[in-house]
């Protein structure tokens, strides 16, 4: 396939079957390989869309500085697009994120402000909002509340899945900013409402939930619970176990958050099998495993990997 | 009937620092009432106006109860209940 430039090649990712992990010919799993995007993650879609929409409405003008709280992938995508389009990018990132993500961000020319590990992305959001107030001329695209984030999936990810798998019964994705699920969810509600939308939410170690009080909690502004049908919390142990299974059984080398998503997808597959129902379950491979090698998730026993992930933002 | 309830750091002041406590109840509502009888004050941190508080997530066997009937979610012996504050991901 030929494109005019790298930015034009975002999306249109392959959907591949999982012949080994699918439990029966009637209950099948399909992986949407979002690691095939230009910077290697699904976040290229919302990052590019947020920039394009901000350019369109005049918020983002040549020479602008973009500010964004991100645990990694969105920042990396923004950094690539910003460098090609001539914007400066400042990322606020929790300090307990993998070294690879930091190196990639620097490579594409982003400046990194570290926020404290305690509080995880919550804290990064808080710090970024404060910085935005101090620098009113900077443009915070704000992936948690920017409709362009969900729009990228409403216009891209959702229609692509339906085109490749018209018989789809379930769509499973990770819940972080909620952009993927909100966009794809809305698309299916409108175009094939019988498709179940399933969320897999990573459950981290205690450090990440270390709020000073409950009122500091955070629900992304984009989140609309009516667009999803089930929501599962998946811990590092299940995520690691599944990400290794995906590699061993199907040859797919994915990032740890994909393990959490596969866990929810396999749970749904087992449920459908037990109920004797046909199911075609599409799930998202958010990114490849490369950026997480240093976390130790892919080596040694599952116990060891689980210990190593304690306190890290692995998704 | 014993159901393990995992308590987040921020609510352990109500459980004398315990990370998990046992409680019983046929529904989540009944379970929270039972929790309250042993850990006074915790209910008010979980429920507001008859609903789960906005920044409180409760999972029964890893599934978010807001999609399984909310406070009416039925429980069985051996279920695991996890309480977590809602935090940002992504």
UniProtKB/TrEMBL annotation, chain A:
<comment type="similarity">
    <text>Belongs to the cysteine synthase/cystathionine beta-synthase family.</text>
</comment>
<comment type="pathway">
    <text>Amino-acid biosynthesis.</text>
</comment>
<dbReference type="InterPro" id="IPR005856">
    <property type="entry name" value="Cys_synth"/>
</dbReference>
<keyword id="KW-0198">Cysteine biosynthesis</keyword>
<dbReference type="InterPro" id="IPR001216">
    <property type="entry name" value="P-phosphate_BS"/>
</dbReference>
<comment type="subunit">
    <text>Homodimer.</text>
</comment>
<dbReference type="InterPro" id="IPR050214">
    <property type="entry name" value="Cys_Synth/Cystath_Beta-Synth"/>
</dbReference>
<dbReference type="GO" id="GO:0004124">
    <property type="term" value="F:cysteine synthase activity"/>
</dbReference>
<keyword id="KW-0808">Transferase</keyword>
<dbReference type="Pfam" id="PF00291">
    <property type="entry name" value="PALP"/>
</dbReference>
<keyword id="KW-0028">Amino-acid biosynthesis</keyword>
<dbReference type="GO" id="GO:0006535">
    <property type="term" value="P:cysteine biosynthetic process from serine"/>
</dbReference>
<feature type="binding site">
    <location>
        <begin position="176"/>
        <end position="180"/>
    </location>
    <ligand>
        <name>pyridoxal 5'-phosphate</name>
    </ligand>
</feature>
<keyword id="KW-0663">Pyridoxal phosphate</keyword>
<feature type="modified residue" description="N6-(pyridoxal phosphate)lysine">
    <location>
        <position position="43"/>
    </location>
</feature>
<dbReference type="InterPro" id="IPR001926">
    <property type="entry name" value="TrpB-like_PALP"/>
</dbReference>
<feature type="domain" description="Tryptophan synthase beta chain-like PALP">
    <location>
        <begin position="9"/>
        <end position="287"/>
    </location>
</feature>
<feature type="binding site">
    <location>
        <position position="73"/>
    </location>
    <ligand>
        <name>pyridoxal 5'-phosphate</name>
    </ligand>
</feature>
<protein>
    <recommendedName>
        <fullName>O-phosphoserine sulfhydrylase</fullName>
        <ecNumber>2.5.1.113</ecNumber>
    </recommendedName>
</protein>
<feature type="binding site">
    <location>
        <position position="257"/>
    </location>
    <ligand>
        <name>pyridoxal 5'-phosphate</name>
    </ligand>
</feature>
<dbReference type="InterPro" id="IPR036052">
    <property type="entry name" value="TrpB-like_PALP_sf"/>
</dbReference>
From TrEMBL, chain B:
<dbReference type="InterPro" id="IPR052045">
    <property type="entry name" value="Sulfur_Carrier/Prot_Modifier"/>
</dbReference>
<dbReference type="InterPro" id="IPR016155">
    <property type="entry name" value="Mopterin_synth/thiamin_S_b"/>
</dbReference>
<dbReference type="InterPro" id="IPR003749">
    <property type="entry name" value="ThiS/MoaD-like"/>
</dbReference>
<dbReference type="InterPro" id="IPR012675">
    <property type="entry name" value="Beta-grasp_dom_sf"/>
</dbReference>
<protein>
    <submittedName>
        <fullName>MoaD/ThiS family protein</fullName>
    </submittedName>
</protein>
<dbReference type="Pfam" id="PF02597">
    <property type="entry name" value="ThiS"/>
</dbReference>
<dbReference type="InterPro" id="IPR010038">
    <property type="entry name" value="MoaD_arc-typ"/>
</dbReference>
């Amino acid at each position: 396939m030929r494109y005019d430039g790298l930015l034009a090649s975002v999306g249109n990712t392959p959907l591949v079957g999982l012949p080994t992990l699918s439990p029966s010919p009637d209950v099948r799993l399909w992986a949407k390989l979002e690691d095939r995007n230009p910077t290697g993650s699904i976040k290229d879609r919302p990052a590019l869309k947020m920039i394009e929409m901000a350019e369109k409405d005049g918020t983002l003008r040549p020479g602008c500085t973009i500010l964004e709280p991100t645990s990694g992938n969105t920042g990396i995508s923004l950094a690539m697009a910003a460098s090609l389009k001539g914007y400066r990018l400042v990322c606020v990132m929790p300090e307990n994120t993998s070294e690879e993500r930091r190196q990639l961000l620097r490579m594409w020319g982003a400046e990194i402000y570290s926020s404290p590990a305690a509080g995880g992305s919550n804290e990064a959001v808080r710090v970024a909002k404060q910085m935005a107030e101090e620098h009113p001329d900077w443009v915070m695209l704000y992936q948690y509340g920017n409709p362009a984030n969900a729009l990228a999936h409403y216009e891209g990810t959702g229609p692509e899945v339906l085109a490749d798998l018209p018989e789809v019964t379930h769509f499973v994705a990770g819940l972080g900013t909620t952009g993927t699920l909100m966009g794809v969810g809305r698309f299916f509600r409108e175009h094939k409402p019988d498709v179940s939308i399933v969320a897999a939410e990573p459950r981290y170690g205690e450090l990440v939930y270390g709020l000073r009080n409950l009122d500091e909690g955070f629900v992304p502004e984009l989140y609309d619970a009516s667009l999803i049908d089930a929501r599962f919390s998946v811990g590092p142990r299940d995520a690691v176990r599944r990400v290794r299974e995906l590699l061993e059984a199907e040859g797919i080398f994915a990032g740890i958050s994909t393990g959490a998503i596969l866990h929810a997808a396999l749970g749904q597959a087992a449920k459908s099998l037990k109920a004797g129902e046909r199911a075609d379950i599409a799930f998202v491979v958010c990114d490849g495993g490369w950026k997480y090698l240093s976390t130790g998730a892919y080596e040694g026993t599952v116990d060891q990997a689980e210990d190593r992930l304690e306190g890290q933002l692995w998704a | 009937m014993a159901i393990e309830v995992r308590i987040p750091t921020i609510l352990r002041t109500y459980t004398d620092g315990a990370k998990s406590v046992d409680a019983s109840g046929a529904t989540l509502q009944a379970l929270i009432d039972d929790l309250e009888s042993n850990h006074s004050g915790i209910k008010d941190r979980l429920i507001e106006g008859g609903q789960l508080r906005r920044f409180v997530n409760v999972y029964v066997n890893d599934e978010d109860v807001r999609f399984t009937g909310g406070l009416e979610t039925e429980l069985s012996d051996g279920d695991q209940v996890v309480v977590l504050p809602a935090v940002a991901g992504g």
